[in-house]
Amino acid sequence: MLKNWLKIAFINYKKNWLSTIINILGLSVGLCVFLLIYIHWQDEKSYEDWIPNKENIYFVENGNASFGIMASSSYPEIFVSKEKFSEIEDATILNDWGKQKLSFGGNSAYVSGTASVDSFFRMLPFEKVAGNFQNAISDNGKIALSLETARSLFGDDYRNAIGKTLKNDSNEKNYVVTAVYKLPESNSVFKPDFIYRNPYLEQSKDQWSSYSYNGFFRVKPGTDIKALEHKLSKQMQEQEEISAKKWGYTIDKKNPAMVYLTPISKMKLDAKSDGINKGDKKSIMILLGLSVLILALSGINLINLKTAQASQRAKEVGVRKVAGSSKATLVLQFLLETFMICLAGYIIAFAMIELLLPVYNKFLGKTIALDNAGIFLYTGLLLILFSLISGLIPALYLSNFRPINTLKGNFARSKSGVFLRNFILTLQLVISSFFIICSLIIHSQVSYMMNKDLGFRGDQAIQIYFKKANWENSFNVNKYRRLKAEMARIPGVKDITGSVNSIGNGTANASIVKLSTDTTKTVQTMLGGIDENFLKFYKVKFISGRDLDWKKASDTINGTVVNETFAGKLGYNPKTALGKEFFTGWDGKKKYKILGVVKDINYSGVNQPVEPIVYFNYDRNWVKNNMSNLQIKMSGNDINGTLERIKEFWTTKAEPGYPYDFEFVDQQFAKTFDKFQKQQTLFTTLNIVVLVIALLGLFALSSLLIEQKLKDVAIKKTLGADERTIVWDLTKRFLLICFIAVLISIPFGYYAMNEWLKDFSYRIDMPVWPYVLSMFLLLILTFAVVSLKAYRATKISLVKYLKYE
Where in the numbering of this chain does the MacB-like periplasmic core domain appear (predicted)? Predict the structure, then answer.
């Protein structure tokens, strides 16, 4: 029996070779897209699976009215909480300390490190290679190295590195090696090349409002996390009230301080803040949902084409039933045929994944490998489920044929068959229209971001970071001045400036500002320590007032320029803000005066709101030691030559032995919406895939349906109907279905895109034209595909179809 089923299946595949190829191609592309996004999702979910008892370790996040939800915590919040609340078994903090240069003898390594405390190794138990984790970083003179770093510094003798002294050239300090550890091979955000004790712990012990550390708790099994969050939040609210009384500002009671605990195993995707190298869960889930739609579209094609072929197999079913075949037997036979098509698509899909995975990895910046046995198990189950769902409808439909009707040959007129095909075709076109609408709106939003006035001109300007000198005087201002003076003599260098905040990398060093005339009115602002020529360097436009005059002592001591957002937060417009005085959290006894208001500069990216910022002379307080970069504008005559001269100076005189790295300021800012450009690319690609699958399915379906009407066409031609009339008669039903499908898709597209646009602080108004264009585009494509087959139908031989009439 099985052999007979297979023989019948292959005869039908051959007879309907076009629809068979389209089915297999559509299924393989749909499965390929779904599986690529699925394995990306599984890869993101697998972060921190290597940590023992990870279900009891939680990442600490804080939220308040001034900062929103932050990935950082204060030192006392973490360690006082450990002593105060019995549910917390252990706690640790850590900071990414960036790249630093370590050296031993004639060997050196430029590697990334983490600053932490001894409890780090209890919370994140790396595999020990040598030494001892206990007291490994108990003081500022100890360091633990990864296996790779130890090999770079000590060669094959890395196991004997314990007790040896290396030098950190970046801060000019010596460290004794206490441990060598192996980094986890699986996915993790914790992969430091070295670990040492955070040098700022002593001065942070009483600073409850200094959110400077990533904090983690290990809690007792069975702990009520919601109850613990409530206790921690209440503690931080009490500390916020103490701080408000001390500094004389009011608290927003409607937005009290809150503490959130996120499981470390879910931190990568589910952190409430920006987390630590947080993944983009929302985009992944959107893409996963869209890939399911594409897979559904492939299944719809299969269902539609199978039901459209029903008239060809109606007599076969009638004969089989008369011969004694049961309904269940027929259903199993048709399910087997569907399964074989799905299996072929499944195999081709994995071949396509192997070919596309390197390109996909490069696009994502990841190294995903197709080596997880679970993927094959889950996708195998998906194959069976998909075959069952997509095959069951046509199988039941075909097995329900009545022998008396099918053997008379009048099945083609069945209303149920027409209704089912129309319904499924409508669903197919709804999905296609939805993708077109979403793709057009995403393209509009990304184009809007790329062309938005950013408030500055960063063309022909590069930024170079220099290394800190030591813990006590980080980013020494004297080093900035020396480098600026020396680099100004390089031919091709037009201008040089510097600032605390870096365009494209966001702002830092926030503080509370309150008006001198109304101490209850406060604004959370960013500190914009800048060099004398910063605003001129970037051609920032003044709305009112003037720039700081470095020759006037009053300007450099307490004069400020503020952005329009800052003025608005204080309740002023750009003109009325001039001359107003305020106190600051960084220098509470001194009054600062607003001398000018400038247009907003977007530091963090156009999807983020512009923050209030106060620009002032960098050389008047502790901010001067945070000058960490040089921003260099070059003349347009010989940019490549100037870059080479800057590189030679930097690698031979400024910081010899360190890698030379720079970035154009406008390109640095462009990275802030790189994520959204990738979304645009993915959506466009998926849109093309959807249209190809839908149009191929539509072509195959229209071919089958028009072939069933060739006798009608022959009769109309005999009665004198012209080609245009016949083509219109054959296509108008498809166009009506297309029109209805677009109307149905509009509310779904509107809802989805309105939700997506909520991520942007600066967004387009919801446009009307994508919905209109989607309708016209889909109508044109539908007409083009169907009319092609319809026109060919008008060229049939009348004798062939009318000789028995």
Answer: 20-233, 426-634
